[in-house]
Write a structure and sequence with these properties.
The complex is a heterodimer of chains A (about 675) and B (about 350).
Chain A lengths: L1 H17 L2 H18 L6 H8 L8 H18 L1 H7 L8 H12 L3 H26 L3 H7 L2 H18 L4 H15 L2 E2 L6 E2 L14 H20 L13 H10 L1 H16 L8 H11 L13 H24 L5 H12 L11 H4 L1 H30 L6 H20 L2 H19 L4 H31 L1 H8 L2 H21 L14 H22 L6 H27 L15 H4 L4 H18 L1 H16 L4 H21 L8 H5 L8
Chain B lengths: L2 H15 L12 E6 L6 H16 L5 E6 L6 H9 L7 E5 L1 H8 L13 E6 L3 E5 L1 H4 L13 E6 L7 H9 L3 E6 L4 H9 L5 E5 H14 L3 E5 L2 E2 L5 E2 L10 H7 L8 H13 L4 E5 L5 H16 L3 H4 L9 E3 L1 H10 L4 H15 L5
Classes of the chains: A mainly alpha (about 675), B alpha/beta (about 350).
Chain lengths: ~675, ~350
């Protein structure tokens, strides 16, 4: 009761703080800026907050908070646009949305998918805020109950979603996830500093690959290339079937799913160190498992959109708990947020254990500013969704060059290396072949995302457990098998068993015809060669750094076994078997008027030209040539479109104070911005 | 142009140049402050704090923007800065202990040379180690009662700033087992709060904002601060924590721990590099004197602000901010270590943690 005696007045104070016109004005300003940043794939809250940082110093705290929270809150809402419309995951929070959102757009139901997603986002954000209001004062013990074994189990639960998304051949899904995990281990190991599949002579790989690049490479590049080859609009008949009211109605029909996924979002978000990357997959898995007729998933099932979108905004609220109560950022944008709070006012708001005691009113303001920002952001998004959905009716050949431009820019922003763009291309190639031969791309991405947490938590939990075991056997067992771990273990086992049973009906890539044996076997052998190389490489790490080699060895071993079984099956089975799925043998890709390599060469051309003359000059040449030659656009229109593309890049680069990739020309001569 | 005109303009030039730095003017320019870490780290916070203050004090009130160039544990950004030469004084670089340690240890990734760079400002911090209450009860100002206990410490890696506490505990003869791979000291504190780690340390601001609450609640027992440097370069009690013994005092009270000799010197060298002169702002090589003077004057003006102490408490705390000559001296101390001390640390890293630096 003591709690309520302090919490209620603080809540009232918080509302008094928020409900001032000027505060709401700043909130709306932040929301609009967040929408502008979030709508571009690959640019998330980190880029947006960095933009605001210079203004935070000495600003009135509640105004600064309104501005920053407005921005952070809408990024997981607005990134839905690119997930649904283009099949490009806007950020790690909306990867699962792509699976069903994009097929809906291709059916001409983009507006419906968008408004269902936004309504779910809004609702998730509100449930999150409501839950936090009650929960935040007692959250501390819960957060502390999640030790390393518990976090490891949550990561494994996330990984178990691979079973649901594995596709028709479970072993292929497993191998794809294993490959994703192995690629996630590239670089300097966290624990002992050993290099894995990297060398100091080629420093780029020592930091590992960025999630932005892998997400764009695996999902965006293959979709863009495929659509471009077919030379049509995203929506099949270039018409919009369902309107935005249908989406709101859809959400209302599935409101209980939305509530459950929102709670999943808050609870997983509360646990520090996991962040948003698992939440949407767990929510997607939950949506699949609670749906009676599973045949629609992967082909445009609205529940597959509502589930992840309900969870990813709720997660933002949950993520505030470790940030505010412990001073531990749950994500990159939260880390900047903590730094920025210290700059506000006279710098006396300090997040951490004292936050609830000294600044409960500010804490509540943050929670409810987040909820309000969700409302404002969603309403704006729904308002424009009908119009933006029209993009799906445009001939894709006009969109493609600008999408290549955007993803190259986004990839470069992740590390500011030319190699970032090369990595995007390389991962894009992997994505294209995974898609072609029906190896589950979601499974690959889940593996990549969870590679680091699984390795880190298992190593650390193992070390601490061995200490406990040294003290006594019971203490070790108590540590490893806490009640939370046991519950999570049961949930994981159930979800794997159910998932495997259901996986056959969930085809993330749609139905794929089988073709000849040769191409799928060659691809399998290429993957196997990489896995073997990674195994040899990991095995070469000296034994005193066992922590750095054990996980790659184990994952590589499991993957290799799966691949070997697949190889044997491939040799034995006839070529009509589902094993030999090949998009080039029949269907849209096979019938496409343009070839794969010729289409991909356009993107390669942009990259090669960038290497020589820098991004902006290369882009100018690329846009003009592409629009003239490939799209057969008249000169006038070509020049207008190319100029507006370059203007967009310059405005974005200028506003975010980012450079563009330089080339050899820039090394030789000094050129004015933006050519530098 | 007549001779008279020419003479007049020469005279005018000479006159204008007389108060050397008055001529440097950054009006309408943008100064880039490059930080070799990501947007989310402590150095980002540090630069973002100083950037607007610096902008106000530089002549012409330029815009100061912080740019991030993370990669390879900050060596990527530092290697890049090594390639830069003076252009128009609009480039500033910020290094931290994580940039200094690889340099001191001759990490193979290091292609930069601190002696080429021109330091204009440096700030430092301190650190505090604390124990869980159970083992803390055995701490009596010496580590004698802690030698038979196995302690667990959540660590970011033995070659980073955690080198200083790990080496300190080793010198005290304690058995501290690091669990590597955590990100940030906040994660270390959380591990301690969950009871998984039994010993931890925080930098001063982290201790005050987070761990001090644990001490007040009785769930942590403070052990020692690393100390601070006095005018003569001796280690004294940290003025931020005057009631806490410094590591030097604890070492002196502990059997088998020497406050002189190779091991001590090695610890002290890395301590100075990682704490009292942790973050340093540099101008690139070949920067002309008047530009250097302009920056030094601007940072001096920042330091002289009447509200500086108040607004900087989070970033600088009660530690001196070095400017100009002071920063040069601090940089020298932060980046020099005797060959014996270096050999000692490299050998210790190899035998204890299997870390090899070739």
């Amino acid at each position: 009761m003591d709690l309520f005696a302090t919490a209620l007045p603080a809540l009232a104070d918080a509302w008094a703080l928020i409900l001032q016109p000027i505060v709401l004005g700043y909130l709306v300003l932040g929301v609009v800026m967040g929408l502008a940043v979030g709508i571009f794939p690959g640019l998330g809250g980190i880029a947006g907050l960095s933009l605001l940082l210079p203004f935070m110093f000495g600003m009135e705290p509640v105004l600064g908070l309104a501005l920053m929270i407005g921005m952070v809150a809408v990024v997981p809402t607005s990134d839905t646009f690119s997930s649904v419309l283009m099949g490009i995951p806007g950020s790690s929070a909306s990867q699962a949305t792509v699976l069903d959102g994009f097929p809906l757009a291709r059916k001409g139901q983009a507006a419906r998918a968008l408004s269902a997603a936004f309504t779910a986002s809004l609702f998730g954000g509100l449930v999150g805020a409501l839950f936090l209001t009650l929960f935040i004062v007692i959250a501390r013990p819960l957060v502390l109950a999640f030790g390393l074994p518990e976090m490891l189990m949550i990561s494994i639960l996330g990984l178990s979603m691979v079973a649901v998304l594995a596709g028709r051949v479970a072993l292929k899904g497993l191998a794809a996830a294993g490959l994703g995990m192995l690629i996630g281990t590239i670089g300097i190991a966290d624990a002992g500093g050993s290099l894995r599949m990297a060398s100091y002579d080629f420093p780029y790989l020592t930091d590992g690959l960025q999630l932005v690049i892998v997400g764009l490479g695996i999902f965006a590049v293959p979709e863009i290339v495929s659509l471009l080859r077919q030379d049509r609009s995203i929506a099949k008949d270039a018409s919009l079937g369902a309107g935005w009211m249908d989406g709101v109605r859809d959400w209302f029909e599935h409101k209980w799913l939305s509530i459950r996924c929102s709670l999943i979002g808050v609870l997983v978000g509360v646990i520090p160190g996991l962040g948003g990357s698992v939440v949407d997959w767990i929510a997607y898995g939950h949506a699949v498992q609670t749906t009676k007729d599973k045949s629609g998933f992967g082909k445009g099932e609205i529940r597959g959109v509502i589930g992840p979108e309900s969870s990813n905004n709720a997660k933002e609220g949950g993520g505030l708990v470790p940030t505010l109560l412990f001073g531990i950022p749950g994500s990159g944008s939260m880390a900047i947020f903590i730094g920025a709070i210290a700059l506000l006012g006279s710098g006396d708001i300090e997040v951490g254990p004292a936050m609830l005691r000294d600044n409960l009113d500010i804490t509540y303001s943050i929670v409810w500013l987040l909820a309000l920002a969700n409302v404002v952001g969603t309403l704006l998004c729904i308002a424009v969704s009908g119009g933006i959905a029209k993009l799906t009716t445009i001939r894709f050949t006009y969109l493609a060059p600008f999408l290549f431009m955007l993803i190259a820019f986004a990839a470069f922003q992740s590390g500011q290396n030319f190699e970032d763009i090369l990595a995007l291309f390389a991962i894009g190639l992997i994505g294209i072949f995974l898609r072609r031969f029906d190896w589950s791309r979601p499974a690959f991405l889940i593996g990549f995302v969870l590679s680091n947490p699984v390795e880190k938590f298992s190593n650390q939990a193992f070390q601490i457990a061995s200490f406990r075991f040294r003290k006594s056997f019971e203490e070790g067992i108590d540590y490893l098998f806490s009640p939370i771990v046991i519950v999570l273990l049961i949930v994981t086992v159930i979800s794997v068993v159910l998932g495997l049973r259901q996986a056959k009906s969930i085809m993330a890539e749609g139905a794929v015809q089988s073709g000849s044996k040769r191409a799928p076997i060659v691809f399998l052998l290429v993957i196997m060669a990489y896995v073997v190389a990674a195994l040899i490489n990991a095995n070469a790490i000296p034994d005193y750094n066992l922590t750095d080699k054990i996980v790659p060895l184990f994952i590589g071993g499991v993957t290799l076994v799966a691949l070997l079984i697949l190889l044997v099956q491939m040799i034995l089975r006839p070529e009509t078997d589902a094993l030999f799925a090949d998009k080039e043998s029949a269907g849209e890709d096979a019938d496409a008027p343009y070839g794969l390599w010729g289409t991909l060469a356009w993107f390669a051309g942009l990259i090669i030209a960038t290497y020589f003359v820098g991004f902006i000059l290369a882009l100018a040449g690329f846009l003009v040539t592409f629009l003239r030659v490939r799209a057969q656009t008249p000169w006038g229109k070509t020049l207008v479109l190319a100029a507006s593309g370059i203007a967009l890049m310059c405005v974005m680069g200028g506003a975010l104070n980012r450079d563009f990739p330089p080339g050899l020309l820039q090394e030789a001569a000094t050129l004015p911005w933006p050519l530098t | 142009m007549t001779i008279k005109h020419l003479a007049a303009s020469v005279a005018a030039l000479a006159f204008a140049a007389a108060p050397a730095f008055a001529e440097v003017d950054f009006s309408g320019k943008t100064i880039e402050w490059v930080i070799p870490f990501s947007e989310t780290g402590g150095s980002a916070k540090w630069a973002n704090f100083f950037a607007p203050l610096l902008a106000q004090e530089l002549p012409g009130q330029p815009t100061v923007v912080v740019k991030f160039m993370p990669g390879a544990g900050s060596t990527k950004g530092a290697n890049w800065f090594q390639e830069q030469k003076h252009k128009d004084g609009t480039l500033l670089f910020g290094s931290s202990g994580s940039t200094q340690f690889p340099y001191l240890l001759s990490d193979p990734r290091v292609r930069y040379e601190y002696n080429d760079w021109i330091p204009v400002m440096a700030t430092g911090t301190g650190g505090v180690a604390y124990l869980n209450p159970e083992d803390g009860a055995n701490f009596d100002g010496s580590a004698n009662g802690l030698k038979d206990v196995d302690l667990i410490f959540g660590s970011q890696g033995a070659t980073g700033l955690d080198l200083v506490p790990l080496l300190a505990w080793k010198l005290l003869g304690m058995n501290v087992e690091p669990v590597f791979g955590i990100k940030g000291r906040g994660d270390g504190r959380l591990m301690f709060e969950r009871g998984e780690a039994t010993i931890d340390y925080q930098t001063s601001s982290g201790y005050i904002s987070g761990a001090a609450d644990l001490v007040a609640a009785g769930t942590a027992v403070p052990m020692m601060s690393w100390g601070a440097l006095d005018e003569d370069g001796m280690i004294v009690r940290d003025p931020t924590f005057p009631d806490m013994p410094s590591f030097k005092e604890v070492c002196a009270a502990t059997e088998g721990c020497e406050t002189e000799g190779v091991a001590w010197d090695a610890w002290k060298a890395f301590f100075i590099s990682g704490y009292p002169s942790q973050k340093i702002a540099f101008l690139p090589k070949e920067t002309p004197q008047e530009v250097i003077d302009t920056y030094v004057a601007a940072f001096e003006a920042v330091r002289a602000r009447p509200d500086f102490k108040e607004i900087s408490s989070n970033e600088v705390g009660q530690y001196p901010m070095f400017v100009g000559e002071g920063a040069v001296k601090a940089t020298h101390e932060a980046t020099t270590v005797t060959p014996e001390a270096k050999a000692y640390v490299i050998d210790w890293l190899k035998t204890s943690y299997g870390v090899t630096i070739e």
